[in-house]
Design brief:
single chain; alpha+beta
């Protein structure tokens, strides 16, 4: 609620409003007409973890006079903006406050990379495993694991897909999970 403690802010916003709003008004004499005007929006940034962006969650954010909780929707992408209604600058003369616009940055992950709703994981195999094929068990980003058969003769940079196991958004869209194969030379060969 907009309880006490707004006194100084409202005074400040009146000054702020007349300094920035008055001159450009198409009706002229902006500061003289003393119309109620909605508060200015404020902008801020928040960095969330890779898994919070993938699965969704709640983060706390400082909105100036208080700490607000902001809901992070599952599958949010880097650079997406969230709007916290009424958490911007107070309005003039009792008008509603502006909004807080939150730009979301997503942290990296030691094992996964994201491309839209798809999630990739690098899988290293040696030359013999690539030639003969191998079965591997890989952890899935949303929990659980998948047993994957890497086929004989696989080439480096091959992408093996598990459908529907990437991101899942709250409105039902799903991405895919990809194992990206990297063929590495066995370390013993380096010493010979």
């Amino acid at each position: 609620s907009a309880g006490g403690g707004y006194g100084q802010s409202v005074d400040f916003s009146d000054i702020f409003g007349s300094a920035f709003g008055g001159g450009g008004s198409p009706f002229g004499g902006g500061e003289r007409s003393a119309q109620p005007s909605k508060g200015q929006n404020r902008e801020t940034e928040i960095t969330v973890t890779f898994m919070t962006a993938l699965k969704g969650g709640v983060e706390e954010i400082n909105t100036g006079d208080s700490i607000s909780k902001v809901k992070i929707p599952a599958g949010i992408e880097n650079g997406n903006k969230l709007r916290l209604k009424g958490k911007g600058h107070p309005g003039a003369m009792g008008a509603e406050a502006g909004d807080m616009i939150v730009t979301v940055s997503i942290g990296g992950h030691f094992m996964y990379q994201r491309h839209g709703l798809d999630v990739e994981m690098d899988v290293d195999v040696n030359i013999a495993e690539a030639a003969l094929g191998i079965k591997v068990t890989l952890p899935l980003p949303l929990g659980g694991s998948v047993d994957m058969a890497i086929p004989p003769g696989v080439s480096s940079s091959s992408r093996l897909r598990v459908k529907g196991k990437g991101c899942q958004t709250s409105d039902g869209k799903t991405g895919d999970f990809y194992a990206v194969i990297h063929i590495v030379a066995p370390s013993e060969l380096d010493n010979e």
